[in-house]
Amino acid sequence: MLSAFVRAFRTPDLRNKLLFTLFILTIFRLGSVIPAPGVNPAVIKQCVEQVTDPASGSSSVYSLVNLFSGGALLQLAIFALGIMPYITASIILNLLTVVIPRLESLKKEGQAGQTKITQYTRYLTVALAVLQATSMIAMARSGQLFQGTSCQDSSQYMNQDLITLITMVFVMTAGTCVIMWFGEMITERGVGNGMSLLIFAQIVAVFPSSMMRIWQEQSVWVFAIICVAGLFLITTVVFIEQAQRRIPVQYAKRMVGRRMYGGSSTYIPLKVNQAGVIPVIFASSLLYLPQLAVGLMGSDSESPVVNFLTKYFDPTGTHPVYMATFFAMIVGFAFFYVAITFNPTEVADNMKKYGGFIPSIRPGRPTAEYLDYVLTRLTTPGALYLGLIALLPMLALGASGASANFPFGGTSILIMVGVGLDTVKQIESHLQQRNYEGFLR
After folding, report:
1. I want to staple 279 with a disulfide (CB 3.0 to 4.6 A). Which of 154, 190, 240, 333 is the partner?
2. What mean pLDDT is predicted for residues 384-412?
3. Are 236 and 392 in contact (CB under 8 A)?
4. Residue 259: enclosing H or E segment and its boundaries?
5. Are residues 196 and 279 in the same domain?
Protein backbone atom coordinates (compact mmCIF):
# COMPACT_ATOMS: atom_id res chain seq x y z
CA MET A 1 0.00 0.00 0.00
CA LEU A 2 2.79 2.46 0.92
CA SER A 3 4.66 1.64 -2.29
CA ALA A 4 1.49 2.40 -4.25
CA PHE A 5 1.34 5.88 -2.67
CA VAL A 6 5.01 6.41 -3.55
CA ARG A 7 4.36 5.38 -7.17
CA ALA A 8 1.36 7.70 -7.30
CA PHE A 9 3.43 10.71 -6.27
CA ARG A 10 6.34 9.70 -8.50
CA THR A 11 4.10 9.90 -11.56
CA PRO A 12 4.17 13.63 -12.53
CA ASP A 13 0.69 13.79 -14.07
CA LEU A 14 -0.98 11.92 -11.22
CA ARG A 15 1.00 13.86 -8.61
CA ASN A 16 -0.21 17.17 -10.05
CA LYS A 17 -3.80 15.92 -9.98
CA LEU A 18 -3.53 14.80 -6.35
CA LEU A 19 -1.85 18.02 -5.20
CA PHE A 20 -4.43 20.15 -7.04
CA THR A 21 -7.27 18.19 -5.42
CA LEU A 22 -5.73 18.63 -1.94
CA PHE A 23 -5.25 22.36 -2.60
CA ILE A 24 -8.89 22.90 -3.55
CA LEU A 25 -10.09 20.86 -0.56
CA THR A 26 -7.92 22.96 1.77
CA ILE A 27 -9.40 26.22 0.47
CA PHE A 28 -12.85 24.67 0.72
CA ARG A 29 -12.37 23.79 4.38
CA LEU A 30 -10.93 27.25 5.08
CA GLY A 31 -14.11 28.87 3.75
CA SER A 32 -16.19 26.66 6.03
CA VAL A 33 -14.82 28.36 9.16
CA ILE A 34 -14.83 31.99 7.94
CA PRO A 35 -17.97 33.69 9.39
CA ALA A 36 -20.33 35.66 7.19
CA PRO A 37 -20.55 39.46 7.61
CA GLY A 38 -22.46 40.59 10.69
CA VAL A 39 -21.83 37.40 12.70
CA ASN A 40 -20.12 37.33 16.10
CA PRO A 41 -17.78 34.28 15.96
CA ALA A 42 -17.19 34.04 19.73
CA VAL A 43 -20.91 33.87 20.59
CA ILE A 44 -21.61 31.52 17.66
CA LYS A 45 -18.97 29.13 19.00
CA GLN A 46 -20.69 29.00 22.38
CA CYS A 47 -24.06 28.35 20.76
CA VAL A 48 -22.64 25.53 18.59
CA GLU A 49 -21.15 23.90 21.68
CA GLN A 50 -24.59 23.92 23.31
CA VAL A 51 -26.16 22.33 20.23
CA THR A 52 -23.55 19.54 20.11
CA ASP A 53 -23.80 18.97 23.85
CA PRO A 54 -25.95 15.85 24.44
CA ALA A 55 -27.09 17.24 27.80
CA SER A 56 -28.79 20.15 26.09
CA GLY A 57 -31.25 17.84 24.33
CA SER A 58 -31.28 20.10 21.29
CA SER A 59 -31.33 19.07 17.68
CA SER A 60 -31.11 21.24 14.63
CA VAL A 61 -33.77 21.01 11.97
CA TYR A 62 -31.03 21.57 9.40
CA SER A 63 -28.81 18.75 10.68
CA LEU A 64 -28.58 17.09 7.23
CA VAL A 65 -27.41 20.35 5.64
CA ASN A 66 -25.09 20.89 8.60
CA LEU A 67 -23.62 17.42 7.98
CA PHE A 68 -22.94 18.18 4.32
CA SER A 69 -21.47 21.58 5.23
CA GLY A 70 -19.01 20.10 7.73
CA GLY A 71 -20.54 22.08 10.61
CA ALA A 72 -20.36 25.38 8.66
CA LEU A 73 -24.14 25.87 8.78
CA LEU A 74 -24.40 26.37 12.53
CA GLN A 75 -21.34 28.64 12.41
CA LEU A 76 -23.08 30.83 9.78
CA ALA A 77 -19.93 30.68 7.62
CA ILE A 78 -19.61 31.88 4.02
CA PHE A 79 -19.83 28.23 2.90
CA ALA A 80 -22.71 27.53 5.30
CA LEU A 81 -24.98 25.99 2.66
CA GLY A 82 -22.27 23.60 1.49
CA ILE A 83 -22.99 21.50 -1.58
CA MET A 84 -26.61 20.75 -0.59
CA PRO A 85 -28.26 23.20 -3.08
CA TYR A 86 -26.39 21.56 -5.95
CA ILE A 87 -27.37 18.07 -4.78
CA THR A 88 -31.01 19.11 -4.52
CA ALA A 89 -30.90 20.74 -7.98
CA SER A 90 -29.32 17.63 -9.52
CA ILE A 91 -31.97 15.37 -7.98
CA ILE A 92 -34.78 17.64 -9.19
CA LEU A 93 -33.39 17.71 -12.74
CA ASN A 94 -33.05 13.92 -12.78
CA LEU A 95 -36.67 13.54 -11.73
CA LEU A 96 -37.89 16.14 -14.21
CA THR A 97 -36.07 14.32 -17.02
CA VAL A 98 -38.73 11.60 -16.81
CA VAL A 99 -41.60 14.10 -16.72
CA ILE A 100 -40.56 16.84 -19.19
CA PRO A 101 -40.06 15.64 -22.81
CA ARG A 102 -37.63 18.49 -23.57
CA LEU A 103 -35.22 17.36 -20.85
CA GLU A 104 -35.60 13.74 -21.92
CA SER A 105 -34.62 14.63 -25.50
CA LEU A 106 -31.63 16.64 -24.23
CA LYS A 107 -30.46 13.63 -22.24
CA LYS A 108 -30.48 11.51 -25.42
CA GLU A 109 -28.42 14.07 -27.38
CA GLY A 110 -25.17 12.99 -25.76
CA GLN A 111 -22.52 15.45 -24.61
CA ALA A 112 -24.24 18.55 -26.04
CA GLY A 113 -27.50 17.74 -24.27
CA GLN A 114 -25.72 16.92 -21.02
CA THR A 115 -23.95 20.29 -21.15
CA LYS A 116 -27.32 22.02 -21.46
CA ILE A 117 -28.75 20.04 -18.52
CA THR A 118 -25.67 20.97 -16.45
CA GLN A 119 -26.32 24.63 -17.24
CA TYR A 120 -29.94 24.30 -16.07
CA THR A 121 -28.65 22.61 -12.89
CA ARG A 122 -26.40 25.60 -12.18
CA TYR A 123 -29.27 28.08 -12.57
CA LEU A 124 -31.49 25.99 -10.29
CA THR A 125 -28.64 25.71 -7.76
CA VAL A 126 -28.38 29.50 -7.51
CA ALA A 127 -32.15 29.84 -7.03
CA LEU A 128 -32.20 27.16 -4.34
CA ALA A 129 -29.17 28.72 -2.65
CA VAL A 130 -30.99 32.07 -2.39
CA LEU A 131 -34.07 30.33 -0.99
CA GLN A 132 -32.13 28.23 1.53
CA ALA A 133 -29.91 31.12 2.63
CA THR A 134 -32.97 33.33 3.18
CA SER A 135 -34.83 30.67 5.16
CA MET A 136 -31.75 29.81 7.22
CA ILE A 137 -31.04 33.45 8.13
CA ALA A 138 -34.72 33.96 8.93
CA MET A 139 -34.63 30.97 11.31
CA ALA A 140 -31.38 32.25 12.85
CA ARG A 141 -32.95 35.68 13.33
CA SER A 142 -36.01 34.16 15.02
CA GLY A 143 -33.86 31.99 17.30
CA GLN A 144 -35.02 28.68 15.77
CA LEU A 145 -31.57 27.72 14.44
CA PHE A 146 -30.32 27.08 17.99
CA GLN A 147 -33.62 25.81 19.32
CA GLY A 148 -33.39 24.28 22.81
CA THR A 149 -30.33 26.29 23.84
CA SER A 150 -29.79 29.61 25.60
CA CYS A 151 -29.09 31.32 22.25
CA GLN A 152 -32.72 32.27 21.63
CA ASP A 153 -31.91 35.98 21.26
CA SER A 154 -30.37 36.29 17.79
CA SER A 155 -29.07 39.79 18.55
CA GLN A 156 -26.35 38.10 20.63
CA TYR A 157 -24.63 36.53 17.63
CA MET A 158 -25.75 38.41 14.48
CA ASN A 159 -26.52 41.94 13.28
CA GLN A 160 -30.22 42.63 12.75
CA ASP A 161 -29.87 45.39 10.11
CA LEU A 162 -31.70 44.72 6.86
CA ILE A 163 -28.66 45.60 4.75
CA THR A 164 -26.51 43.17 6.76
CA LEU A 165 -29.07 40.38 6.37
CA ILE A 166 -29.25 40.93 2.60
CA THR A 167 -25.44 40.90 2.47
CA MET A 168 -25.39 37.59 4.35
CA VAL A 169 -27.80 36.05 1.84
CA PHE A 170 -25.68 37.34 -1.04
CA VAL A 171 -22.41 36.06 0.50
CA MET A 172 -23.80 32.58 1.25
CA THR A 173 -25.26 32.29 -2.25
CA ALA A 174 -21.92 33.35 -3.74
CA GLY A 175 -20.24 30.77 -1.49
CA THR A 176 -22.44 28.04 -2.99
CA CYS A 177 -21.45 29.17 -6.51
CA VAL A 178 -17.77 29.02 -5.53
CA ILE A 179 -18.25 25.51 -4.11
CA MET A 180 -19.93 24.43 -7.34
CA TRP A 181 -16.95 25.81 -9.30
CA PHE A 182 -14.54 24.00 -6.96
CA GLY A 183 -16.30 20.70 -7.67
CA GLU A 184 -16.13 21.19 -11.43
CA MET A 185 -12.43 22.12 -11.24
CA ILE A 186 -11.63 18.94 -9.26
CA THR A 187 -13.55 16.82 -11.76
CA GLU A 188 -11.73 18.44 -14.69
CA ARG A 189 -8.19 18.78 -13.33
CA GLY A 190 -8.06 16.62 -10.22
CA VAL A 191 -8.81 13.05 -9.18
CA GLY A 192 -12.33 11.72 -8.66
CA ASN A 193 -15.76 13.27 -8.84
CA GLY A 194 -15.43 16.84 -7.55
CA MET A 195 -18.85 17.19 -5.93
CA SER A 196 -18.58 13.83 -4.19
CA LEU A 197 -15.11 14.64 -2.87
CA LEU A 198 -16.37 17.93 -1.42
CA ILE A 199 -19.12 16.10 0.46
CA PHE A 200 -16.56 13.51 1.57
CA ALA A 201 -14.25 16.23 2.91
CA GLN A 202 -17.04 17.90 4.89
CA ILE A 203 -18.18 14.66 6.52
CA VAL A 204 -14.64 13.55 7.37
CA ALA A 205 -13.92 17.02 8.83
CA VAL A 206 -16.39 16.54 11.71
CA PHE A 207 -15.48 12.89 12.30
CA PRO A 208 -12.44 13.44 14.62
CA SER A 209 -14.35 15.87 16.88
CA SER A 210 -17.23 13.38 17.22
CA MET A 211 -14.82 10.59 18.17
CA MET A 212 -13.03 12.89 20.64
CA ARG A 213 -16.37 13.78 22.25
CA ILE A 214 -17.16 10.10 22.76
CA TRP A 215 -13.69 9.56 24.24
CA GLN A 216 -14.28 12.36 26.73
CA GLU A 217 -17.87 11.43 27.66
CA GLN A 218 -17.73 7.63 27.71
CA SER A 219 -15.47 4.99 29.23
CA VAL A 220 -12.58 3.35 27.42
CA TRP A 221 -14.58 0.16 26.90
CA VAL A 222 -17.52 2.00 25.33
CA PHE A 223 -15.12 3.86 23.04
CA ALA A 224 -13.46 0.58 22.01
CA ILE A 225 -16.82 -1.08 21.34
CA ILE A 226 -17.91 1.87 19.19
CA CYS A 227 -14.65 1.70 17.18
CA VAL A 228 -15.01 -2.06 16.59
CA ALA A 229 -18.68 -1.65 15.64
CA GLY A 230 -17.75 1.19 13.27
CA LEU A 231 -15.07 -0.91 11.56
CA PHE A 232 -17.52 -3.81 11.21
CA LEU A 233 -20.13 -1.45 9.76
CA ILE A 234 -17.66 0.02 7.26
CA THR A 235 -16.56 -3.48 6.19
CA THR A 236 -20.17 -4.53 5.67
CA VAL A 237 -20.95 -1.42 3.63
CA VAL A 238 -17.85 -1.94 1.45
CA PHE A 239 -18.83 -5.57 0.83
CA ILE A 240 -22.41 -4.73 -0.17
CA GLU A 241 -21.46 -1.64 -2.21
CA GLN A 242 -19.09 -3.80 -4.27
CA ALA A 243 -21.62 -6.61 -4.71
CA GLN A 244 -23.15 -6.90 -8.17
CA ARG A 245 -24.97 -9.33 -10.44
CA ARG A 246 -23.31 -9.69 -13.83
CA ILE A 247 -25.72 -10.42 -16.66
CA PRO A 248 -23.78 -12.10 -19.52
CA VAL A 249 -24.28 -10.58 -22.99
CA GLN A 250 -23.16 -12.21 -26.24
CA TYR A 251 -22.81 -10.24 -29.49
CA ALA A 252 -23.37 -12.12 -32.72
CA LYS A 253 -20.88 -11.94 -35.57
CA ARG A 254 -21.85 -9.78 -38.54
CA MET A 255 -20.19 -8.87 -41.83
CA VAL A 256 -19.77 -5.18 -42.75
CA GLY A 257 -18.16 -5.02 -46.16
CA ARG A 258 -15.23 -7.40 -46.05
CA ARG A 259 -14.76 -7.18 -42.29
CA MET A 260 -16.39 -9.21 -39.56
CA TYR A 261 -17.55 -7.47 -36.38
CA GLY A 262 -18.98 -8.75 -33.13
CA GLY A 263 -18.61 -12.17 -31.67
CA SER A 264 -17.47 -10.73 -28.32
CA SER A 265 -18.77 -11.48 -24.83
CA THR A 266 -19.40 -8.92 -22.11
CA TYR A 267 -21.77 -8.41 -19.20
CA ILE A 268 -24.17 -5.87 -17.68
CA PRO A 269 -23.17 -5.11 -14.05
CA LEU A 270 -26.23 -4.64 -11.86
CA LYS A 271 -25.28 -3.50 -8.35
CA VAL A 272 -27.18 -4.63 -5.27
CA ASN A 273 -27.38 -1.00 -4.17
CA GLN A 274 -28.20 0.50 -7.55
CA ALA A 275 -29.67 3.70 -6.05
CA GLY A 276 -26.66 4.67 -3.89
CA VAL A 277 -27.30 7.13 -1.08
CA ILE A 278 -29.95 9.15 -2.95
CA PRO A 279 -32.99 7.46 -1.26
CA VAL A 280 -31.58 8.27 2.18
CA ILE A 281 -31.13 11.93 1.21
CA PHE A 282 -34.68 12.02 -0.22
CA ALA A 283 -36.24 10.55 2.90
CA SER A 284 -34.15 12.69 5.29
CA SER A 285 -35.04 15.88 3.44
CA LEU A 286 -38.77 15.14 3.47
CA LEU A 287 -38.80 14.16 7.14
CA TYR A 288 -37.24 17.50 8.09
CA LEU A 289 -40.27 19.30 6.64
CA PRO A 290 -42.51 18.53 9.67
CA GLN A 291 -39.96 20.07 12.05
CA LEU A 292 -39.53 23.02 9.73
CA ALA A 293 -43.31 23.52 9.82
CA VAL A 294 -43.25 23.32 13.63
CA GLY A 295 -40.50 25.95 13.71
CA LEU A 296 -42.47 28.29 11.45
CA MET A 297 -45.78 27.83 13.31
CA GLY A 298 -44.11 27.98 16.73
CA SER A 299 -43.37 25.05 19.00
CA ASP A 300 -45.51 26.62 21.76
CA SER A 301 -48.63 26.51 19.60
CA GLU A 302 -51.63 24.57 20.92
CA SER A 303 -52.58 23.33 17.44
CA PRO A 304 -53.25 19.55 17.22
CA VAL A 305 -51.08 19.39 14.10
CA VAL A 306 -48.12 20.93 15.94
CA ASN A 307 -48.61 18.59 18.90
CA PHE A 308 -48.79 15.56 16.59
CA LEU A 309 -45.64 16.52 14.67
CA THR A 310 -43.74 17.36 17.86
CA LYS A 311 -44.65 14.03 19.46
CA TYR A 312 -44.19 11.59 16.58
CA PHE A 313 -41.63 13.36 14.35
CA ASP A 314 -39.07 14.47 16.88
CA PRO A 315 -35.86 15.51 15.03
CA THR A 316 -33.72 13.14 17.13
CA GLY A 317 -35.55 10.31 15.34
CA THR A 318 -36.05 8.10 18.42
CA HIS A 319 -39.82 7.64 18.11
CA PRO A 320 -40.94 4.33 16.51
CA VAL A 321 -43.36 6.15 14.18
CA TYR A 322 -40.51 8.32 12.89
CA MET A 323 -38.26 5.28 12.38
CA ALA A 324 -40.96 3.28 10.59
CA THR A 325 -41.81 6.21 8.31
CA PHE A 326 -38.12 6.82 7.58
CA PHE A 327 -37.53 3.14 6.73
CA ALA A 328 -40.62 2.91 4.49
CA MET A 329 -39.69 6.09 2.61
CA ILE A 330 -36.13 4.86 1.98
CA VAL A 331 -37.37 1.55 0.58
CA GLY A 332 -39.96 3.30 -1.60
CA PHE A 333 -37.51 5.90 -2.90
CA ALA A 334 -34.95 3.18 -3.67
CA PHE A 335 -37.39 1.40 -6.00
CA PHE A 336 -38.51 4.72 -7.48
CA TYR A 337 -34.99 5.99 -8.18
CA VAL A 338 -33.86 2.69 -9.73
CA ALA A 339 -36.96 2.70 -11.94
CA ILE A 340 -36.19 6.16 -13.38
CA THR A 341 -32.43 5.64 -13.78
CA PHE A 342 -32.38 2.15 -15.32
CA ASN A 343 -34.82 1.44 -18.15
CA PRO A 344 -34.83 -2.31 -19.01
CA THR A 345 -36.76 -1.71 -22.25
CA GLU A 346 -34.22 0.84 -23.49
CA VAL A 347 -31.30 -1.46 -22.59
CA ALA A 348 -32.96 -4.40 -24.36
CA ASP A 349 -33.59 -2.30 -27.49
CA ASN A 350 -29.97 -1.12 -27.60
CA MET A 351 -28.73 -4.70 -27.24
CA LYS A 352 -31.00 -5.85 -30.06
CA LYS A 353 -29.89 -2.95 -32.28
CA TYR A 354 -26.22 -3.97 -32.04
CA GLY A 355 -26.81 -7.72 -32.26
CA GLY A 356 -26.49 -8.49 -28.57
CA PHE A 357 -28.47 -11.03 -26.60
CA ILE A 358 -28.52 -12.74 -23.22
CA PRO A 359 -27.91 -16.50 -23.54
CA SER A 360 -31.15 -18.52 -23.38
CA ILE A 361 -33.21 -15.28 -23.46
CA ARG A 362 -34.87 -14.06 -26.67
CA PRO A 363 -34.04 -10.47 -27.74
CA GLY A 364 -36.59 -7.68 -27.38
CA ARG A 365 -39.43 -7.84 -24.88
CA PRO A 366 -38.36 -11.12 -23.17
CA THR A 367 -34.94 -9.55 -22.48
CA ALA A 368 -36.56 -6.44 -20.98
CA GLU A 369 -38.80 -8.59 -18.77
CA TYR A 370 -35.82 -10.65 -17.63
CA LEU A 371 -33.78 -7.54 -16.77
CA ASP A 372 -36.74 -6.08 -14.88
CA TYR A 373 -37.17 -9.34 -12.94
CA VAL A 374 -33.46 -9.49 -11.97
CA LEU A 375 -33.37 -5.78 -11.08
CA THR A 376 -36.42 -6.13 -8.81
CA ARG A 377 -34.86 -9.07 -6.97
CA LEU A 378 -31.63 -7.10 -6.50
CA THR A 379 -33.31 -3.85 -5.45
CA THR A 380 -35.32 -5.52 -2.67
CA PRO A 381 -32.33 -6.50 -0.49
CA GLY A 382 -30.54 -3.30 -1.53
CA ALA A 383 -33.44 -1.13 -0.33
CA LEU A 384 -33.72 -3.06 2.95
CA TYR A 385 -29.96 -2.68 3.44
CA LEU A 386 -30.18 1.10 2.94
CA GLY A 387 -33.03 1.37 5.41
CA LEU A 388 -31.23 -0.64 8.09
CA ILE A 389 -27.95 1.26 7.67
CA ALA A 390 -29.79 4.59 7.93
CA LEU A 391 -31.66 3.44 11.07
CA LEU A 392 -28.55 2.24 12.92
CA PRO A 393 -27.65 5.62 14.53
CA MET A 394 -31.30 6.17 15.52
CA LEU A 395 -31.48 2.71 17.12
CA ALA A 396 -28.19 3.33 18.94
CA LEU A 397 -29.45 6.73 20.10
CA GLY A 398 -32.76 5.32 21.35
CA ALA A 399 -31.19 2.30 23.08
CA SER A 400 -28.27 4.01 24.81
CA GLY A 401 -29.30 7.65 24.99
CA ALA A 402 -25.92 8.59 23.57
CA SER A 403 -25.07 11.81 21.83
CA ALA A 404 -27.14 12.66 18.78
CA ASN A 405 -23.86 13.36 16.96
CA PHE A 406 -23.13 9.66 16.47
CA PRO A 407 -20.02 9.47 14.24
CA PHE A 408 -20.98 6.29 12.38
CA GLY A 409 -24.24 7.61 10.94
CA GLY A 410 -25.83 5.75 8.05
CA THR A 411 -25.70 8.60 5.54
CA SER A 412 -22.13 9.59 6.40
CA ILE A 413 -20.81 6.00 6.20
CA LEU A 414 -22.51 5.37 2.85
CA ILE A 415 -21.06 8.56 1.38
CA MET A 416 -17.56 8.05 2.77
CA VAL A 417 -17.33 4.44 1.57
CA GLY A 418 -18.83 5.16 -1.86
CA VAL A 419 -16.64 8.18 -2.59
CA GLY A 420 -13.55 6.48 -1.17
CA LEU A 421 -14.00 3.41 -3.37
CA ASP A 422 -14.63 5.51 -6.48
CA THR A 423 -11.55 7.69 -5.86
CA VAL A 424 -9.30 4.67 -5.24
CA LYS A 425 -10.52 3.08 -8.49
CA GLN A 426 -9.66 6.23 -10.45
CA ILE A 427 -6.17 6.42 -8.93
CA GLU A 428 -5.72 2.72 -9.68
CA SER A 429 -6.70 3.24 -13.33
CA HIS A 430 -4.12 6.05 -13.64
CA LEU A 431 -1.40 3.82 -12.17
CA GLN A 432 -2.31 0.88 -14.41
CA GLN A 433 -2.01 3.08 -17.50
CA ARG A 434 1.58 3.97 -16.60
CA ASN A 435 2.98 1.18 -14.41
CA TYR A 436 0.82 -1.84 -15.36
CA GLU A 437 0.31 -2.26 -11.61
CA GLY A 438 -2.73 -1.15 -9.68
CA PHE A 439 -3.18 0.85 -6.50
CA LEU A 440 -4.43 -2.20 -4.60
CA ARG A 441 -2.69 -5.55 -5.11
Report:
1. 333
2. 66
3. no
4. strand 259-261
5. no
